[in-house]
Amino acid sequence: xxxxxxxxxxxxxxxxxxxxxxxxxxxxxxxxxxxxxxxxxxxxxxxxxxxxxxxxxxxxxxxxxxxxxxxxxxxxxxxxxxxxxxxxxxxxxxxxxxxxxxxxxxxxxxxxxxxxxxxxxxxxxxxxxxxxxxxxxxxxxxxxxxxxxxxxxxxxxxxxxxxxxxxxxxxxxxxxxxxxxxxxxxxxxxxxxxxxxxxxxxxxxxxxxxxxxxxxxxxxxxxxxxxxxxxxxxxxxxxxxxxxxxxxxxxxxxxxxxxxxxxxxxxxxxxxxxxxxxxxxxxxxxxxxxxxxxxxxxxxxxxxxxxxxxxxxxxxxxxxxxxxxxxxxxxxxxxxxxxxxxxxxxxxxxxxxxxxxxxxxxxxxxxxxxxxxxxxxxxxxxxxxxxxxxxxxxxxxxxxxxxxxxxxxxxxxxxxxxxxxxxxxxxxxxxxxxxxxxxxxxxxxxxxxxxxxxxxxxx
Length: 459
Prior knowledge:
One of its GO terms (biological process) is DNA restriction-modification system. This is site-specific DNA-methyltransferase (adenine-specific). Keywords: Methyltransferase, S-adenosyl-L-methionine, Transferase. Belongs to the N(4)/N(6)-methyltransferase family. It is a single chain. By secondary structure, the chain is of the alpha/beta class. Helices cover about 25% and strands about 20% of the residues. The protein is built from 16 helices and 20 strands. The chain has helices spanning about 15-25, 45-55, 70-80, 100, 120-130, 140-150, 175-180, 265-270, 290, 325-330, 335-340, 340-345, 360, 405-410, 415-420, 435-440; strands at about 35-40, 60-65, 85-90, 105-110, 155-165, 185-190, 200-205, 215-220, 225, 255-260, 270, 285, 310, 365-370, 370-375, 380, 385-390, 390-395, 425, 430. Strands 3-2-1-4-5-7-6-8-9 form a nine-stranded mixed β-sheet. Helix 3 (about 70-80) links the parallel strand 2 (about 60-65) and strand 3 (about 85-90). The chain starts with 14 loop residues before the first helix and ends in a 21-residue tail after the last helix.
């Protein structure tokens, strides 16, 4: 993806990927077709199209490349200067007039700029929101590229895009998913990251025809399935696993959430061996994601092997405690605590946590897991006394008696496969086991059969 580095450099698509995408683009190649490369850069897709048509022995169609960057547009012009069928237009693809492009297109291909909401100027945000129905929430520019491409695609036309996988599940892309689902989403292929990009890429193939057909999903482990995508804007990735149970993990949970964010772990988290006697009433066993790795997946945490405690200045009902011993101890670091954003701007009390901990939920038997992991692994807090740190997620079941069955289920290969297919990718092949995905993990009815759950019925 172009623009996925911290300095917003343009990242060129590797030629082998460009050629692979071109092979997916042309369903019925014709020299009379019009082809658009949206955000063409130096023209790697145009090169791939020329090579592909040459290998097919077909006369080259009209190809239009649009590029906003002057230097890149000039390089593309020079590269294709002797090919009359190729035209490079220096303009903003999101706002260029259709007339300037010569009308609509039969085929569109793109690896659009990936510019996050934070890096879009307020003026551009306002402009985009007035133009695009997908410019809602914390949108990214590549989402707008998809919408504009659909508008420029002829009925029956076909487009292939290389984008971050995030549009498949983030809330801000709900409008985009709803828009795309009006047409035939032929294929979604999650591919491995390539040099120069930070986001995990996805190839999406779309035909501009109404469709009630299934979409082919190819994940990074090589599995291929066909599913019906939701049409209401809800996440698509959570529909790609092989688990067909109607019940979801969120249906049997009181809470699924990341652990406690203190805003200053170096102050609130201290070695158990150095805990003053006077602070024992406010100290709870605590664990980080890295510390979880010392325990065996699927088994209960051994409290004796926990080396740290968290000082929690809250009562179970969420109110701040004003005990003198605790205040005196924390006062040693008052300047540091007062420098936090939540105190300066958020007007929280100087020793408050970044987020108020819901102790009434946390201090129950629960299941724990690392936020980022190579393999999905789960652990048990049988006694319900651990206060997990922010790098650990936790799930509190509505009935703790199901924990032994649930932890056994979570360790199965089918669950691991589902999570690998649905979770967002981090660096080096790791996955993010975030709550919005975990909540939608399908669970079999027999896990909770006979147990009264919060839905108010017995399964």
